[in-house]
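[Automated response] Your request has been received and processed.

Submitted sequence:
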Amino acid sequence: MISPEAKAVRDQLIEKGLETPTFDNGMSEEQRYERIKSLMTEVMGTLGLNLDDDSLHETPHRIAKMYVYEIFSGLDYSNFPQIAMIENKMDLEEMVKVRDISVISSCEHHFVTIDGTAKVAYIPNKKIIGLSKINRLVRFFSQRPQVQERLTKQILIALQTLLETDNVAVSINATHYCVKSRGVMDVNSQTETTALGGIFKSNERTRAEFLA
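Generated structure:
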C-alpha cells in the first residue's frame, strides 16, 4: 500500500513521462535481496574473487542489502516520506528557499555515485510544507538509479503536486563519479541542472532571487 500523496506524485510523473523506467517483476523486498545476493556471488566468482576469504565472504550480502534497502529504496513508493501539508493560515506569499540539501544518488548508466547539493524554493499558495519534508523528498528520489536531469524534474513535479502550485524551483549541483573515477577521469567537473515552474520561469527577478 502507498499513501495518497505518493500515488498522486507517481501519477503525475507517469503522466508527464518523468517516472523512472521500471516494471513490476512481482518480487518482494526479500526476494529481490536473495536474487541480487545470488547474482553478486556469481559476478564476484566471475572476477576470480575468493569468497572464502573473510574480507569478501559477506560482500554479496552487503551489496544486496545496500541495493534493496538503502541506495535504491526510492524505487518503492511504500517508502515515500510521510508528508502532511499545512494550511497557509499565515498567508505567506514570499519565497521559501532551502539550500545545501545533500544529494547522494547513483548514475543509472554505471551504478556509481552522484554526489552534490540541491536548492529548492517555492512561493506558498494555499499550502505550506514542513522544511524537513523537502529534504526527505530530495532523498527519496535520489535513492534510485538516476540521471540528474530527471531527478531535478521529479523533485519539481512532486512539490508542485503536493503544494498545488506551479511556483516551485529546483537546482542541483553534483559530481558524477562515472566521470570522475572512470572514462575521462575528470576530477574537477560538476554538473548543474535547474527545473523552474510558474513564476520562477516567467519572472526574471524571482528567477534571479532563486538562483542567487
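Summary generated for your ticket: The chain is about 40% helix and 20% strand. The longest helix spans residues 29-46.
If you did not submit this request, please reply to this message.
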